[in-house]
Amino acid sequence: MDTTEVGSSRAVPAGTRRAGAVRRAARELAFVATLFLAYKAGRVAVAGRTGTALANGELVWRLERLLHLPGEALVQQPLLGHELLVRLANSYYAYVHFPATAICLVWLYARRPAHYHRLRRALAALTAAAFVLHALVPLAPPRMTALTGLVDTGRRYGPAVYGSPEADTLSNQYAAMPSLHVGWALAVAVALVAVTAGRLRWLWLAHPIVTLLVVVATGNHYWLDGVVAVALLVPILAVLPRPPRVHRTVAVPTPGGPLRPHLVDRRRYAGHGGRRRSRAGSAGGGRRFRPPGRG
Predict the structure, then answer these.
(1) Among 41, 60, 64, 73, which is most exposed with the fewest C-beta within 10 angstroms?
(2) Spatial distance between the Cα atoms of 260 and 287, rounded to a whole number of angstroms
(3) DSSP assignment, residue 220?
(4) Residue 196, number of CB atoms within 10 A of its CB
(5) How does pLDDT run across 209-237, given as a tens digit for each residue?
(6) Three-state secondary structure readout of 244-280
(7) Which segments of the chain have a pLDDT < 70?
(8) pLDDT for 8-18, tens place per residue?
(9) Cis upstream peptide for 178 (omega within 30°)
(10) How far apart are CA 233 and CA 292, in angstroms?
(11) What are the φ and ψ backbone dihedral angles of 293, each rounded to 5 degrees?
């Protein structure tokens, strides 16, 4: 059998491999960008339903009071007296959400492909479910609901993410439930906890916790918006198959030669009155074998 042709067909030039990797990376990046654009394009689904969104906002606020959830103003009011903290919260809301998700996806794509595919599917499923809920239940954020007593910290202190609801054609401001900020942050944290080691890996969960506090403090989401996002994400992650765990093997040093039983010289006990002698020792000579570990 001539193996020359088979070997040459299996050999792939380095340039071809690099080009293939670039195409796959570009395809994945386009997929993630499509998710983000679909999230932004949801405004079309609620065109002309502003009144319904505002009424739903009041219903959610009353439901939270029935459930004895803390008011969103309890988080925002202490920050209003500290402009720097308010600006930091606005910046976190504006600049951390999508870049943190993109960086995590890129790192997982390069280092942990199996976990990357699971996270990508989770984000896609969560975004699709959120898009359906946004279309069925348009919801105004608490900064637009008079009952909450919240202010729009973005417009008052900056940096502002949204403009006037009537003139803003790039985002859907009536898609408060569920909060994809919280959902995406939790999905990213779960993926990073799964691929890192040590007790400090649980610090990744600080990202969704801080995100939840930020979206409430800035008046962009109710508590229930985050709760619903988590309620949607948990079954999605439960259904998706988990990547196999990679067990790291630890090299155990071995002795230079084969293991041999210990040789115990029985003659050294000869001066003790013969009390330590045995029949096997007297019959078999001055030495006898003992198993390893008992010498």
Answers:
(1) 41
(2) 14
(3) S
(4) 13
(5) 999 999 999 999 999 999 999 999 999 99
(6) CCCCCCCCCCCCCCCCCCEEEEHHHHCCCCCCCCCHH
(7) 1-15, 17, 20-21, 32, 35-36, 38-48, 165-170, 246-295
(8) 445 556 667 67
(9) yes
(10) 56
(11) 90, -5
